[in-house]
Predict the 3D structure of the following.
Amino acid sequence: MNRKFISKSNRVLRKVLNSKENLDILQDFIETFLKIKIQEIELNPYLESKSNNLPSPENFGIADVRVKLQNQEELNVGIQFIDGKFAQNKMLLYYAQIHSNQLEYQDNRKMAKTVTINLLDFNYLKSENYFNKIVIPSKTEHQIELYVLELPKFVPNREKLGDKQETWMMYLCGSQQTSIQEVLKQCDKIKKLDVLLEEYWENETME
């Protein structure tokens, strides 16, 4: 795992990415892993407004966004790092949180389908693939969709460096420094994120 994410990864990335100026990074990440094309993206302000009232804000996810696709379909997307304790419960509770957050918009919008992307720094599923989709039937209008990224299962392939998903994974996993420099040259959004993280750690103070 990239060492720039250590120490309360959700809190660090939430502070870095939750702004209108950095939505392009979130959009690139979401488009890459969900294989969709986003026309519009906006932050749900609920995440940051409520986080200071929680006992463990560092475990409150990275981002909660609403996206409109080119076919006009709308989705809610949540992204979080989770640790190895009660992983299944954390994935389901986070999904429920992101889905119900739609009520906080207070603009009478229709409840849209929700998906979450869960990043794990440990092996959890039996599948040998590092990226898996879990679908759980629901009595509501939308089925539950959980995407799981297990970083330890990823094996870098330098020949695939031009592939966007491969490039993002190499950065998330913190492959050798020489590879990271190649990654930064390949994707301007990842390079922007890397600069933001460098600035964050340079200015980090004890809280």
